[in-house]
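Reply to dn_fold:

You asked what the input looked like. This is it:
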Amino acid sequence: MGAVDDASTVIPAYAGIQYPAPMKHPCVYILASRRNGTLYTGVTSNLIGRVWQHRSDLIDGFTQKYGVHTLVWFEPHENMEAAIGREKAIKRWRRAWKIDLIEACNPMWRDLYPDIIGAPQA
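and this is what came back:
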């Protein structure tokens, strides 16, 4: 993923189109394989880039092995220390609590990635 400048990012799937990069701050996120499917909780300072890496299977490991590519929840934080603390707490949660967290703001388990990159809705 190539940075054009501090305000824009080029997403390879949308090459030639630049979107603002509002997610360049610490975030905790949850990916899912499908509704009520396999869940993955992570933390990053670049949500757009990190989710794109997961979706493109560029990261060896859990998300690649189990096809966990749908961004269903995220939470921005003021600093990385707070984000890491929240990620660790969520990872200790029961699965039902994670599902409740997702469904409180995303009851249809809609993929939020198009929203964060500013892509037109289908």
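The longest helix spans residues 80-92.
Hope that clears it up.
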